[in-house]
Amino acid sequence: MAMSTRCLLAFCALLLTPTAAHAELNVVATLPDLAALAEVVGGDDVEVTALASPNRDPHYIDPRPNLILPLNRADLLIVNGLELEIGWLPPLQVAARNGRIQTGGPGYFDASTVVQPMEVPTGKVDRAMGDIHPGGNPHFLYDARQARRVVGALAKHMARLDPQNAADYARRAAAFDAKLAETTRRHAERFAALPDEKRRVVTYHASLVYLFDWLDIEEMQTIEPRPGIPPTPGHTAQVLSTMKAHDIRLVVQESYFPRKTSETLARLVDGTVVVLPGGTRFDEGEGYLAHIDDLVGRLYAALSK
Amino acid sequence: MRAMRTILTVLLAAPALAAAQTVDQAVLDALSAGLAADLGPATAPQTGGPAGNSNPDISLILDVAGAWFDGEPSQLGAHDPQSTGFNLQQLEMHIASNVDPFFRLEANLVFSEFGVEVEETYGTTLALPADLQMRGGLFLTRFGRINPTHPHAWRFVDQPLVNGKFFGGEGSRGLGAELSWLAPLPWFVEWVGSATMANGACCARSFYGADDPGVETPADLLYTAALKQFFALDDAWSLSWGLSGQFGPNASGNGNRSEIYGTDLYLHYRPANSPDREALSLQLEAMYRTRQVPSDRLADYGGYAQLVWTIDPRWEVGARYGYVSGLSDDPLDPGWVEDRHRASGQITVYPSHFSRVRLQANRDDRGDAVTWAGFLALELLIGAHGAHTF
What we know:
The structure holds two protein chains of two kinds. Chain A has two domains: 22-120 and 129-184, Nitrogenase molybdenum iron protein domain (Rossmann fold), CATH 3.40.50; 194-303, Nitrogenase molybdenum iron protein domain (Rossmann fold, 3-Layer(aba) Sandwich), CATH 3.40.50. Chain A is 42% helix and 12% strand. Chain A contains ten helices and eight strands. In chain A, α2 links the parallel β1 (25-29) and β2. The termini of chain A are far apart. Chain B has one domain (55-383): Beta Barrel (Porin), CATH 2.40.160.10. Chain B has two helices and 16 strands. Chain B has a 16-stranded antiparallel beta barrel. In chain B, a hairpin with a 4-residue loop joins β2 and β3. The two termini of chain B are 30 Å apart. Chains A and B meet through α3, α4, α5 and α6 of A and α1 and β8 of B.
């Protein structure tokens, strides 16, 4: 009895020994944009890994088992949410054997819970409508205003997990928020100066609605007849007549969507296809602001031509 | 353990930090207030739709096929189209949800025309310490690559021959417990060990099979061990390599035992920046089986290789070759003396993520007879679309 009590105490003492490396939070973000935001807020206090690369459609990331390793060690998992990662993240989370980052766990942060979602379906969602996300359009990271919300909430979450460095998280988030606010204003003003007829475009997938809301651009139609359904000849003909009727010469899409139909349409109206980077090149050291400036710059150059 | 440590650290340090935290909280609150003034209040989105958030994910998968055979059909898989005409391969209902922060529950109920079967139902731990994970219940053992998966994840209409002959029509599965461990190495290494009931003609035919002598000692159980490794060769190339073994008693009495050894390889290529999500995959599995029978030891082997090209999100083509050796005087398959070769080709169209139509042709050479077969299979999925594992 006495012996086992002593063993138990020794065991507890072992558990309670603070680990030296605890100053650093292991952060895993599903998307490179979220990783870039986490790195700004976390600075030297965090080690950030992005699961998806920016040149792949975030709906369709291969759940390669090597992604389980960073998830296994993570103190904080940042997801985009609104079911964007539903096709690949859940089994990785289970296989990670890490209670902290399970949905609803202390180290689970769903960025979509702090933004203002667009295109939230009001009626019944039916698959015949295509790949509708029942909680709203998940592509909010193209909008610097939504990124501001994420940054603020992220600082709070990191401060909760690592209270010792709370002041640093708050300070970095506040500084970055000011930069994001400036970026938001600067680009919005630039686009506001464009004449109305230059602010109409056609896109491939309905993934740019937040960007267009921020910069006041009108998406006249998508080349996909319904979200996630590849273009059909009948619908493409309809898009062409829309483009002709409104004198639209610009097709906007991300690099990872098919380009054939977009290029055909652009050729038929004597216009161009603007290919936007789908995410921050986090692995190459690019930051979120540089990514947004690049993305918005490409769009502006094409629109103002 | 770590959570407890964190909590205690926080509690112990609380008095010292209290002052500092109030200041930080003020900065954070000011940030939120500034955001709200600039952008308006954030509204939390409603996820999961009006059905509510706490319902489990439920999906229903229908597999039906029209089949044609130019001779005597002899398909080994319980979900394979079995005869010329229309076949209900299965109607599978998959239900899954986290139970609490510690467990996840999954169930696969399979409906046939005249009954329902609980194919799998098991709990998985979510937060065991030391990178361990347990499963308990009725589950497909993690032998090789194809065995743990369901027809929905298969690239061909029917099960590989070797799985049918060695494990049974429904693959290797049983009631039991499994422990797996993620090794703390720079690349993915997972060890898996399970103990399951050794009976069932459908799912442990090389062991007790249709016999059910009961469990008297641990030697009456079926043990499965597997080592899974994954190598991300680069951004586009992936390689999985597995080793598996299965050990248990067989039905020939006298404490006779059977053993199955297997290795599997999966090479996957998906280039970055391919807007068509083009991919090429090569999958190989080989198995070797020995069985003690009265006054003899039987040994046979088999395997398959399949190559699948995903052309774009809509189209896919694949070729597969399978082989299993035959034995004279095999008490389990008395008529199966000759080696059997089967070559298959398939072309599949995916109108969306939730439906597929697959056309497949088989040339099945049983040594004494060659049978040609053609399948036109339709799969439809409604409800939650569970993510696939790699």
